[in-house]
Design goal:
alpha+beta, UDP-n-acetylglucosamine1-carboxyvinyl-transferase, Chain, Dihydrodipicolinate Reductase, domain 2, 2 domains, four-stranded mixed sheet, 15 strands, 28% strand
Length: 351
């Protein structure tokens, strides 16, 4: 069995390297040896969330692995065949449920039969895609390429308490469909042209917090200068702990882009709202089609399709590192071109 050696300190040096490597090991059948796991993080090695990613990958392809313990900086992973099924994983912390799903989702699309994955953990937490982004931005983007899945929020979970739950139903990838309607095709411009006259909506989540917090955030949003069509307040009554986040949703007929900022102890509402409004305004002014978070997450699906382009607003270290890792497993190449304030990323078979 061929082994791919990955240095976890490469580039951004975080958990994305592990998740991408696990997914592609399952897909390609190549063994994985990764060391220096999360070397750039203060608590280097496998944290709870990352250990669950390993356990989830091991479960879906009956893999053999060594080093799958908390704090481990080295992992050997030998995949078997990908298996569809009904999977349940509990992170045991506020670690991101959506990131655990994304570690196994690419492989489950190739399983040949439908699967269901349910994860308990954080659904709305900093440094990870919230459920709303995963459901409204990410899944529709890959669906047009034949990667079909639907998800449901069973219970919100906020940092630091966690305790949330989300589930996703995954259908086998319809590769022929993706060739007929490819969302990454630059010629069609689906993900290369900015949103045209998007409708702008806001959403506020509060859990176990005083009512005046959401009221103040509504006032600040209405004074932000954005042409908001509606400000929705979701008061969560069944969460394990307190939580707050504010979202701006840019919606057009073709796609929705979700931006999020999180409230926390000692962070005033003005700062929370200002942060998410700045994200939305910067993106809208930059001439990009997709934001930097979606850009990072689409790479593996472009690589599986072996073609496609999109235009994003930032060439992040996450993005560049992810391209490097993917090219170690798959015979594809990525090309990056700068266009004023945006970047066009294209994927094609390696020559």
């Amino acid at each position: 069995m061929e082994t791919v050696h990955i240095d976890g300190s490469t580039g951004e040096g975080g958990g994305q390297i592990l998740r991408t490597s696990l997914a592609l090991s399952c897909i390609t059948g190549k063994a994985l040896h990764i060391d220096n796991i999360r070397a750039a993080r203060r608590n280097a090695g496998l944290a709870k969330q990352h250990l669950v990613c390993v356990e989830a990958a091991r479960a879906i392809c009956d893999a053999k692995c060594r080093g799958a313990v908390l704090g481990s900086k080295v992992l050997d992973f030998q995949p078997g065949s990908i298996r569809s099924g009904d999977y349940h994983f509990d992170i045991g912390s506020a670690g991101s449920a959506s990131l655990v799903i994304q570690a196994v989702l690419p492989a489950l699309f190739l399983a040949g039969q439908p699967s269901t994955v349910t994860v308990t953990g954080g659904t709305h937490n900093p440094m990870a895609p919230p459920f709303d982004f995963f459901c409204e931005t990410f899944l529709p983007a890959v669906a047009v390429a034949g990667f079909q899945a639907d998800c449901r929020l069973i219970k919100p979970g906020f940092f630091p308490a966690g305790g949330g739950k989300m589930t996703i139903n995954v259908q086998p990838w319809e590769e022929n469909t993706s060739r007929a309607i490819d969302p990454f095709d630059f010629a069609q411009g689906r993900l290369c042209e900015p949103l045209e006259q998007p409708q702008i909506y806001a959403r506020i989540y509060t859990a176990k917090l005083p009512a005046h917090i959401a009221q103040r955030q509504k006032r600040l949003l209405s004074q932000s200068g954005l042409d908001l069509q509606d400000i929705e307040h979701v008061e969560v009554t069944d969460s394990a702990g307190a939580g707050n986040c504010v979202m701006i949703r840019l919606c057009s007929s073709s796609r929705t882009t979700v931006f999020t900022a999180y409230g926390m102890r000692g962070k005033p509402s003005q700062e929370v709202v200002g942060e998410v409004v700045a994200q939305a305004k910067d993106f809208s002014a930059g001439g990009a089609a997709i934001d930097r978070f979606l850009a990072d997450q689409l790479l593996i699906y472009m690589a599986l399709s072996k073609r496609g382009c999109y235009v994003t607003n930032e060439l992040s270290t996450h993005l560049q590192t992810n391209m490097e890792i993917i090219q170690k497993f798959l015979p594809i190449s990525f090309n990056v071109q700068r266009h004023e304030r945006a970047y066009r990323i294209c994927c094609h078979p390696a020559s």
